[in-house]
């Protein structure tokens, strides 16, 4: 009962938050260049942006409450269903977003993240309740570790994906010299590239641990090793290798900026395919 | 006699056309000599900077003078006449004066209030003086232009807005590179504008500054001021890979930074971005480098556009400056017009003196002592001067009024001074 209440609350607040954040993309504030010999000044944050941020925070708290109630009432580890996995993904992305917000105050990030979060939540409702093949042993702790780590890793990739999109936008503004309102709101290319790097650099090992724990669990419980002939796994492994390549390229060959942004975007499309493949197995 | 000006600027011609009109220091002597050789032109000087190419001349006949200067630019730029005509402006008399004063005060500059233009004008003028291309009129006009520019600078805040372009460069640098702390910048060519931008970079945290300049002493001086590193101009290509920001203002006639060098630098830097700023015209950095990944090139036009400045404030300062200029123009043209009365005044004085002499000669034989002669001479001179004093004063004063020409005409008729009247020219 309460769970449904908080779940609806989550949707409601994210909806309004998203709409406000999207409005912020187009309003004319945020230019920081007011000159006649004066210093660079940051204009104060418009109320709408503060509201969007607060609503997101409230939505996030509702979301958290949903999880807490779910765990306490059922006594089992969630993410058994794909829809819950996606919902957890949305929760993790918002958490990372809020942490970035505290650190960097780049409000425009919400205008990109929140739509993704909302889309994820909406799409999760379309997934059937019981899609994973569940045996008795599924509620094992290992499974929880596997899914949690995997989803956290994927959340990192989502952040890299969003930074990649923002990077490409900002780069286009700078190259074409169209210094629009959005240009002033977007952070520096360097910062966006840093986010991209950190997100993949931390997301990748976490996901790898998640995959390994899953494999160990499967071997232990089901006596199965990693199977590479299944198309779903092929996509998953292919995506994993793609991110490995992106990381390797960044470390050894200095793939950064535009190239790194492209890779983050392509990689995340691969992740989406994995999700879809999971849904239609 | 009239002052005329024919030229073009960033307001009337795009960079591609302006480049064709750019006259380098080496070619300037030849150009000045060629212009001076024209019999229609009495005095002249040529101003060629990044943003403008203008020829100023004192001519007998305005229309003919315009033709001469237009032909001069046609030969200089080697462009077809129809293309030239749409870019050139033609000013004469007070319009020309006003334009020159505005240019000197940096009101017509692309970066309004930038400090470089007055220095460039001084250089151009010195060169013209060296070739004896200028005369009394232009010398006087030029002195006036300098004093007007100084007045505008001290009495208005117009020079502050040049600063905004430097700010724009800093902000762009921050958007590309993140903060400027721990970044390395290089300026190639150490003009005033480059210095201004460099100053802002350093103030915003740029850690090390390389200064490459043709004149090494100047590089040394700037390096001392900014705690930077002076390098030889030839060495700048090798230094690009270590720089996050490269500012170029050499004023070379062609590109000195090309795609190959930059892509090599980016490879060495493992794709860390470089922000190039090209404030020279003709451009000294190949615009194609902007298409390279992790390379961002802004030229002076782009920076100007990037300035979202406080327009209202600036407009008011500009208005103040325009008022100063109008005031000075009317003052100068008064003086200039009074020059038209000068031949008439001289002729009138000469005529009176001639009559006086003739009459004295007649009577001279009848006088005995030198003392008597002396007395007579003094007396007649006094009479002539007293008689002429009022008409001459009125002529001087009225010559720049609306009916000045009528007055001159009347004087020439009354005293039968046709010779002097025609020597005034037909303007």
Largest sheet descriptor of chain A: none
How many domains of chain B? The number is: 3
Cα-to-Cα separation, first versus last residue of chain A: 31 Å
Distance between the termini of chain B: 6 Å
Range of strand content of chain A: under 5%
What's the total count of β strands of chain B? 10
Mean pLDDT of chain A: 79
Please indicate the percent range of residues of chain B in DSSP E strands (runs of 2 or more): 5-15%
The CATH topology assignment of the largest domain in chain B is Beta Polymerase, domain 2
**Largest sheet features of chain B:** 6 strands, parallel
Q: In total, how many beta strands of chain A?
A: 0
Query: Looking at this structure, what is the CATH superfamily of the largest domain in chain B?
Result: Glutamyl-tRNA reductase, N-terminal domain
Taking all Cα atoms into account, the compactness measure Rg of chain B is 29 Å
Under the CATH scheme, which class of the largest domain in chain B?
Alpha Beta
User: Structural class from helices and strands of chain B?
Assistant: alpha/beta
Oligomerization status of the protein chains: heterodimer
Helix count of chain A equals: 9
CATH architecture of the largest domain in chain B: 2-Layer Sandwich
Low-confidence stretches of chain B: 420-427
Average pLDDT level of chain B: 84
Order of helices and strands of chain B: EHHEEHHEHHHHEHEHEHEHEEHHHHH
Explain what you see.
The complex is a heterodimer of chains A (281) and B (427). Chain A has helices at 2-26, 47-74, 82-104, 109-126, 141-176, 181-185, 189-222, 231-253, 257-279. In chain A, α3 (82-104) crosses α5 and α7 packs parallel to α9. The radius of gyration of chain A is 20 Å and the shape is flat. Chain A is built from nine helices and no strands. Chain A is mainly α and 281 residues long. Chain B has helices spanning 15-21, 25-37, 62-77, 81-87, 93-104, 116-130, 136-155, 162-177, 192-203, 216-226, 236-239, 259-268, 300-306, 311-364, 370-398, 404-414, 418-422, and strands at residues 2-9, 41-48, 52-59, 89-92, 184-188, 208-213, 229-232, 245-248, 274-278, 295-299. In chain B, the strands form two sheets. Chain B has a six-stranded parallel sheet with strand order 7-6-5-8-9-10. In chain B, strands 2-3-1-4 form a four-stranded antiparallel sheet, sandwiched between helices. In chain B, α5 packs across α14 (311-364) and α6 runs antiparallel to α7 (136-155). The longest helix of chain B has 54 residues, at 311-364. Classes of the chains: A mainly alpha (281), B alpha/beta (427). Chain A binds chain B through residues 31-38, 40, 170, 174-175, 177, 179, 183, 188-191, 194, 253-259, and chain B through 157, 160-161, 163-164, 167-168, 170-172, 174-178, 269-273, 290-291, 293-294, 296, 298, 302, 305-310, 313-314.
